[in-house]
Amino acid sequence: MYKASRFSPLTSIIRHTVITLPTPINISTWWNFGSLLGICLASQILSGLILSLHFTAHTDLSFYVVIQSFGDVYYNWWFRALHANGASFFFIGLYLHIARGLYYGSYVFKEVWSIGVVILLLVMASAFLGYVLPWGQMSFWGATVITSLFSALPVVGGDVVVWLWGGFSVDNATLTRFFGLHFVLPFIVAGLVGLHLFFLHDQGSSNPLGVSSDFNKVVFHHYYVLKDLVGACFFIGPLLGLVYFNPWLLGDPENFIEGNPLVTPHHIQPEWYFLFAYAILRAVPNKLGGVVALAAAVLVLFYMPVSPKTSVKGLSFYPWGKILFFSLIGVFFLLTWAGSKPVEEPYVVISQVLSFLYFSYFALIGPITRIQDKLL
Q1: Of these four, 101, 216, 222, 234, which has the most CB atoms within 10 Å of its CB?
Q2: 3 is catalytic
């Protein structure tokens, strides 16, 4: 072993973070998504910085600048496709990371989990802001619909909407401030990721068995560095395949039409990674109730650290809990499907039933696992 005096403070931090960090010996592939999300964040920041050099935040120019950049700027098409599809892969990683945390009980680390939920909220905000910037039809009307939701807030709703718009409609001032916020938020997310890792390394990683692994650990390098590199190859491969062969597969054709406040698209919907929340929003007939349900769909994750505790961390030894968890996964996919459908029957009723089932999981998982504890 090297003596600590041989390393500078910065080198020591890096060394203790990615080389000599004690890590449970039995963590599975599901623990790879933390590092994959770090790669996604770095990719989004770098590609976004390059794209921002050739972007003009103006309602008369943004749409045409984006199109012109494809032909006039070397490899602009590649960075734009990487940025757009990278956002989708970022959310795939986020949702899988959260699902792993719910299944294996990672929410018992309150600081780590709470900061993670804040990161999720900021990434969602940044993704929404970025979707508005190309100023296509779905960009414009998506911004109009989502920002108008704040008008449902009692007393201050109207003032908040005017402040968000920078006027009395979605216009140039809106686009300018959305671009500024979209540029800044990823750096705030990067800072929170550092804080997330600090608390994670301070408290230690969980493991699939949900038991203490203090006496059964190995150093992070080279065991898990190599494992993360293999995971990165399997994650980046499909992303690059999408970028090269079908870069607009996950996009909306409406966004290839310039935003027009006089022509409303037949069916306004957000990107696929927001559809589950969009379905919950539409399931509530009352506007304020819909906004509350929309916010609760994500904020409910803050409840997990204070939910009833079980004798064993995670759901590995709770058959009823496993049934509930995989039912939640199914409900999530069905909500995503329902959110992509028009606001008409039977999709409204289906969304209402699925929304009830979605929130039921968080209300039932604690009591159900506690009952199993008593039976065992």
Answers
A1: 101
A2: no
